[in-house]
Design brief:
The protein has 575 residues and is an alpha+beta fold. The chain is elongated, with a radius of gyration of 33 Å. β6 and β7 form a beta hairpin. 26% of the residues are buried. The chain has a five-stranded antiparallel beta sheet.
């Protein structure tokens, strides 16, 4: 080890490096090379004559060089020419590409850059000169972080597009309850610049009259925020452009970071000014009522309680159903509900005195299509009959956006399976359920044997296709309630609920391995794929294990690596 330290010291300090190198023995080089093999990144060391002093196997692997290039004394020019001839540097004369890079290397300057290889791998390359000797270069595979950053950028852009397209708006508060984001729709609708809102609290932008006349409402709202609880349908007044008063309704949920620390709130907002004004003015004459209802931006329908027939619909509602008002009035309202039992339950709650505000209801058009709406009910007297006035706000776009955002947050974009976040949530729920009941559960953990060689030989597109096809095959043998997740790369987990013992868990694992007996075929390519499955049971008879998610994952992962010791679709379940 002393001689090895002598060599490293000579290289790093550069003092009489040529002489120091000459005095190093073969054992010195052997120890240096062995030391380099312990480094995860690829690494190469070249002397002042641009000859290879040493490198590790990771360097050869990452850059896909022939193994014989790792021999001491190989010229840097050899590496450059090999890359140029196989198109690593793009188009252009090979000799010019080699010369350009040799001239740059001869400067012996610090350098740091990223390079995308033709096979899709992104390398981060950092070179450090060694005084009076040469230089050391490290190579790190940053493909996954780069892909993740790009996916996040696309996800953010998708959210921004949806926010602009939605009929309502989105907002976000920081931990101190100041606005840090507000979608453009609100600023345009309320005729105020965005900086009028950003950096302020909701109390700061609310109408002073609302704050003064409703202190209890605001106190309850602020208490909810201080407890980091979700809230729904909070109404308040806002003074917008030209002094106009807007009546707004907002809902929000608390946001926590990966460490469970409170990070603020996110939510949606709705302009209910037309609804508020219409409800306020229902005390005026019926003729005025009809005028107001017909001019409302929200759909409105009056249903007679005695026979359930619609006696008035405004044009906005008729447009939602793609019918003239005359085709709707006189019909029973129940004809237009997708889930009639759900609507009957809502009416029962309403008749028992419960306030029905912004209830989510799916409506059915006569052509078979449907849309989702927020429904608010109020009892009125119409032509001397007891009736129900329903305000209907189409929020199909917002619902679609909400479901899409939820899907993006909880599913793997490649396979459509549950992602790591959803897996963690489901594991915690399964643990809680198994602790409350006598039935147990199981966790299976598996990956593809020799997946990396497949990626390296046939490319990442083929690897991605294989992951998707594998997912589809496994899904066909799972039960409806099983949770199938992709954690990343070729690592998958399956949560099996209501499992009595190891025998049942093994039976499912065997069905999974059976999926891989048939070849995976694509465009003439035939792949034989094996997997290694590890797992553990918990809850029920294994109750002592059913309270620590991290320990269960560790056991299943350890069992999987034990299964890898037996080739060909091996299964290992931890005791």
């Amino acid at each position: 080890m002393a001689n090895n330290e002598h060599l490293l010291s000579a290289l790093s300090k550069g003092a009489a490096s040529e002489l120091a190198l000459e005095t190093c023995t073969s054992r010195d080089f052997y120890l240096l090379e062995k030391g380099l093999e312990q480094i995860e990144e690829g690494i190469s060391i070249f002397d002042r004559q641009l000859k290879l002093v040493a490198c590790n196997a990771r360097f050869i692997e990452l850059l896909d060089f022939p193994k014989e290039f790792s021999q001491r004394g190989t010229l840097l020019e050899t590496f450059f020419r090999y890359n140029a001839e196989r198109g690593e540097y793009g188009t252009g004369p090979t000799e010019q590409q080699v010369k350009t890079r040799l001239d740059r290397a001869a400067l012996f300057e610090h350098h740091s850059f990223r390079r995308s290889r033709p096979d899709g791998i992104v390398l981060e390359i950092k070179g450090t000169p060694i005084t009076q000797f040469g230089f050391v270069t490290t190579y790190s595979d940053v493909t996954e972080p780069v892909k993740t950053a790009e996916a996040l950028r696309h996800s953010h852009q998708r959210f921004q597009d949806m926010a602009r397209a939605a009929s309502d708006w989105f907002w976000e508060l920081d931990p101190s309850m100041h606005f840090i984001y507000l979608s453009e729709r609100f600023a345009k609708a309320a005729d105020v610049p965005p900086n009028y809102i950003i950096g302020k609290k909701r109390d700061d932008i609310a109408c002073p009259t609302d704050l003064a006349e409703n202190p209890g409402k605001w106190q309850k709202y602020n208490e909810t925020l201080s407890q980091h609880l979700p809230f729904r349908d909070f109404e308040y007044c806002f003074i917008g452009g030209e002094g106009r008063t807007y009546h707004l309704k907002v809902s929000g949920v608390p946001v926590f970071d990966s460490n469970g620390k409170f990070a603020g709130y996110r939510g949606t907002g709705t302009d209910i000014t037309p609804l508020y004004e219409a409800q306020r003015d229902l005390t005026i004459s019926e003729a005025q009522q009809r005028t107001i209802l017909n001019s409302s931006a929200s759909g409105a329908v009056i249903t007679r309680q005695s026979d359930g027939k619609m006696v008035f619909t405004n044009q906005t509602l008729a447009d939602m159903f793609r019918l003239p008002t005359s085709a709707m009035e006189g019909r029973r309202a129940t004809k237009f509900y997708q889930d009639k039992q759900h609507w009957a339950a809502i009416i029962q709650r309403f008749q028992h005195g419960e306030s029905i505000v912004n209830e989510e209801v799916e409506y059915l058009r006569l052509d078979g299509s449907s849309f989702w709406a927020l429904v608010t009910l109020r009892k009125i007297n119409y032509h001397g009959d007891e009736a129900i006035l329903a305000w209907i706000h189409d929020f199909s776009e917002l619902r679609t956006t909400r479901e899409e955002l939820r899907r993006l947050a909880l599913t793997d974009p490649l396979t459509g399976l549950a992602n790591r976040r959803m897996f963690q949530d489901q594991l915690e729920r399964t643990i809680a359920r198994s602790n409350r009941s006598a039935e147990g559960a199981a966790l299976l953990y598996f990956d593809i044997d020799q997946f990396k060689p497949i990626n390296d030989q046939f490319g990442h597109d083929t690897g991605d296709w294989l992951l998707v096809e594998l997912s589809r095959r496994v899904e066909t043998v799972l039960r409806r309630n099983d949770v199938f997740s992709r954690l990343g790369g070729d690592e998958f987990t399956i949560l099996l609920d209501h499992i009595k013992d190891h025998q049942e868990a093994r039976h499912v694992a065997e069905k999974i391995t059976h999926c891989f007996k048939a070849l995976f075929c694509k465009d003439g390519l035939q792949l034989q794929v094996d997997v290694s499955i590890g797992g553990c049971c918990f809850g029920g008879a294994n109750r002592s294990d059913a309270d620590n998610p991290r320990e269960l994952i560790r056991k299943a992962d350890k069992a999987m690596y034990k299964a890898k010791q037996t080739p060909g679709n091996a299964i290992c379940l931890a005791d």
